[in-house]
């Protein structure tokens, strides 16, 4: 298969996820009381800040694509996975609304974030509402499969929140080990992506062993996904990512490239540690955790991280986790076409630019 055909197939898988999930997602948002319905519609890119219809970027839609594909693993049609796809998207966007506020992010998907436009209170309320809707969507069928799916989503949501708490705590620590960082990212990103690739299978009638193995595949895929995100958070093109240049450095994130660089030997690692320690000390003394630097300072930190090997290590880790995901996938019986698509989505995760 040619690279152009690969791109076409991935685009089709992602578009299928959007197309099948969108009507149910919009109907769920319509249940919200005003003005939460409007605020949520803005967040999803359906309207602009003035309430006019918009064709904004709705995100990569990897999770819905995985949920629909996983429904096909036990032989069910992809439509069976739609409630799972919608529920996972609702929880994912609940986390984005809250994360943007906690992190002080002013841009997402090339637009002002919800808290910036509608205020922190609405960002919190709408996030809570999306979380509640996710469980409602899964449970309203009253089926055994819906209950099984809801249990998996609840467990993944709790891990996601654990991961966000760990991420915030790391910002105030001088040192974080690589293993701690991987554990945090396995919770914050891996858990929900793992849920996405098992929840459709559960709704499609798969047994627990199959769902557990798909979840293991999704966990490793989530770690690969986050490793790439960490690279983009420092070296990504703002035009592609929709975020500020050096966004993770501005937030003092202890992401994988930073942690791996600090764990290395050599003058670049030591200089980076000195800069971060001095920064933390100054912020503690002044009480200005949002203090910013000029672009040259961020460029220097990025250069030191790269020189210390943090960039290379993180790229290698993305490839390692991708390989582990594919190895796990070999343990699951499924139609060849479904397997090829799951492999293609895994490949897409590690080569994306946004």
UniProtKB/TrEMBL annotation:
GO biological process: isoprenoid biosynthetic process
InterPro entries, per database record: Isoprenoid_synthase_dom_sf, Polyprenyl_synt, Polyprenyl_synt_CS
Signal peptide interval: none
Molecular-function annotations in GO: metal ion binding; prenyltransferase activity
Keywords: Magnesium, Metal-binding, Transferase
Pfam family, one: polyprenyl_synt
Keyword NADP appears in the UniProt entry: no
Keyword Metal-binding part of the UniProt annotation: yes
Record family assignment: Belongs to the FPP/GGPP synthase family.
Protein name: Dimethylallyltranstransferase
Organism: Wenjunlia vitaminophila (Streptomyces vitaminophilus)
